[in-house]
């Protein structure tokens, strides 16, 4: 019986995604399932809309900057904690993981006050700052785990053979932690790209993200273009994970003593 329950759960999990994808091909002017006829009308409307493409570009750029910045910052933090064994390293790690503890709605309210005092509320720079904060926990764990698994003796050996610090880093350290960096970049990009709860508090008339736009469209109408956008995002995310896994390699780390 447990085996059949497990199979049923595994079959049920992708059902919402499958329904959304199928609904995006409907020829009706509203969301419905089962679909009423087949049509690519809503994909053409999505790709032909300047407004949708603009918010798509904004979300992609925001996620890319957030992923690079948070991964770079977390690599420096992990280097200090793991390699240099700084004091209160465990406390430092707990602080970095703090965004996982607080409700996103509370973070949104706090960020309204913070960004207002900085004059960044409703700006792209404000969203970059907030998304970096939100993605730091997801960036830190794989990078720190990769550093812990890499052999520090290799770096010491390279230095003893006369390699300069930058060359040791480029030729020894970076290849050893590359899977962790790739995992960090991938996780943070996807999380930032899909983030809606906190971003909903912070968008303005001149900056809008794709998830918030989808959320607004759901509240205002039931157009199948929402399903088309969602299906395109699922395809994009799946393709990105597959390509990175094949070309570079993605490792999901579990730290062990």
TrEMBL record:
<dbReference type="GO" id="GO:0055085">
    <property type="term" value="P:transmembrane transport"/>
</dbReference>
<dbReference type="InterPro" id="IPR035906">
    <property type="entry name" value="MetI-like_sf"/>
</dbReference>
<feature type="transmembrane region" description="Helical">
    <location>
        <begin position="94"/>
        <end position="113"/>
    </location>
</feature>
<feature type="transmembrane region" description="Helical">
    <location>
        <begin position="224"/>
        <end position="244"/>
    </location>
</feature>
<dbReference type="GO" id="GO:0005886">
    <property type="term" value="C:plasma membrane"/>
</dbReference>
<feature type="domain" description="ABC transmembrane type-1">
    <location>
        <begin position="56"/>
        <end position="244"/>
    </location>
</feature>
<feature type="transmembrane region" description="Helical">
    <location>
        <begin position="181"/>
        <end position="204"/>
    </location>
</feature>
<comment type="similarity">
    <text>Belongs to the binding-protein-dependent transport system permease family.</text>
</comment>
<feature type="transmembrane region" description="Helical">
    <location>
        <begin position="119"/>
        <end position="140"/>
    </location>
</feature>
<dbReference type="InterPro" id="IPR000515">
    <property type="entry name" value="MetI-like"/>
</dbReference>
<keyword id="KW-1003">Cell membrane</keyword>
<keyword id="KW-1133">Transmembrane helix</keyword>
<keyword id="KW-0997">Cell inner membrane</keyword>
<feature type="transmembrane region" description="Helical">
    <location>
        <begin position="7"/>
        <end position="33"/>
    </location>
</feature>
<keyword id="KW-0472">Membrane</keyword>
<dbReference type="Pfam" id="PF00528">
    <property type="entry name" value="BPD_transp_1"/>
</dbReference>
<keyword id="KW-0813">Transport</keyword>
<protein>
    <submittedName>
        <fullName>ABC transporter permease</fullName>
    </submittedName>
</protein>
<feature type="transmembrane region" description="Helical">
    <location>
        <begin position="53"/>
        <end position="82"/>
    </location>
</feature>
<keyword id="KW-0812">Transmembrane</keyword>
């Amino acid at each position: 019986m447990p085996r059949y329950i497990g199979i049923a759960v595994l079959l049920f999990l992708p059902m919402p995604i499958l329904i959304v994808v199928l609904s995006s091909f409907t020829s009706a002017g509203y969301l419905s399932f089962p679909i009423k006829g087949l049509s690519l009308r809503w994909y053409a409307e999505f790709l032909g809309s300047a407004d949708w493409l603009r918010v798509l570009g904004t979300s992609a750029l925001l996620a890319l900057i957030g992923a690079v910045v948070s991964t770079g910052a977390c690599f420096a933090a992990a280097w200090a904690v793991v390699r240099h064994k700084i004091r209160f390293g465990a406390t430092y790690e707990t602080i970095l993981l703090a965004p996982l503890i607080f409700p996103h709605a509370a973070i949104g309210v706090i960020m309204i006050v913070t960004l207002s005092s900085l004059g960044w509320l409703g700006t792209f720079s404000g969203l970059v700052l907030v998304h970096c904060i939100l993605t730091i926990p997801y960036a830190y764990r794989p990078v720190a785990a990769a550093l812990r698994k890499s052999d520090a003796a290799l770096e010491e050996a390279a230095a003893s053979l006369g390699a300069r610090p930058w060359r040791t880093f480029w030729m020894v350290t970076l290849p050893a932690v590359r899977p962790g960096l790739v995992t960090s970049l991938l996780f943070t990009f996807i999380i930032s790209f899909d983030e809606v709860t906190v971003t909903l508090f912070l968008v303005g008339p001149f900056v809008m993200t794709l998830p918030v736009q989808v959320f607004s469209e759901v509240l205002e109408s039931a157009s199948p273009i929402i399903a088309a956008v969602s299906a395109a995002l699922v395809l994009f995310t799946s393709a990105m994970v597959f390509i990175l896994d094949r070309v570079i390699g993605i490792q999901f780390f579990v730290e062990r003593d």
